[in-house]
Write a structure and sequence with these properties.
The protein is mostly beta strands. It is about 0% helix and about 50% strand. It contains no helices and 11 strands. The chain has strands spanning about 5, 10, 20-25, 35-40, 45-50, 55-60, 65-70, 75-80, 90-95, 100, 105-110. The strands form 2 sheets. Strands 2, 4, 5, 6, 9, 10 and 11 form a 7-stranded mixed beta sheet that branches. It has a 4-stranded antiparallel beta sheet with strand order 1-3-8-7, with no helix packed on it. It is globular and about 45 Å long. About 30% of the residues are buried.
């Protein structure tokens, strides 16, 4: 049974940082991992993705230069380091692994 679990969200002031984690279990092959977010009243959008075999990351323009994606293949874990957070980054952040969604983790950026 596959499972995708996100963690690390919370409340942070503008300019602050958070690190999100996504742990994938039950998968039997290599896979593409992506982070998405959905702000209130808006559609879900892709934030960043990382694949194989190069493990190169691709970012949405809105987060480029502020967010960094990495993955630990040995631990089946993907991390999203978010720096210089802005109020417009407020959203529920979801991890997708080979088409399977996690439950999401809330990120709120406010003073």
């Amino acid at each position: 049974q596959v499972q995708v679990v996100e963690s690390g969200g919370g409340l942070v002031q503008p300019g602050g940082s958070l690190r999100l984690s996504c742990v994938a279990s039950g998968f039997t092959s290599m896979y593409l991992m992506t982070w998405h977010r959905q702000a209130p009243g808006k559609e879900r959008e892709m934030v960043a993705r990382i694949g194989i075999p190069s493990n190169g990351a691709i970012y949405a323009d809105s987060v480029k230069g502020r967010f960094t994606l990495s993955r630990d293949n040995g631990e089946n874990t993907m991390y999203l380091q978010m720096n210089n957070l802005k109020p417009e980054d407020t959203a529920v952040y979801y991890c997708n692994v080979a088409g399977h969604w996690g439950q999401g983790t809330h990120v709120t950026v406010a003073s």
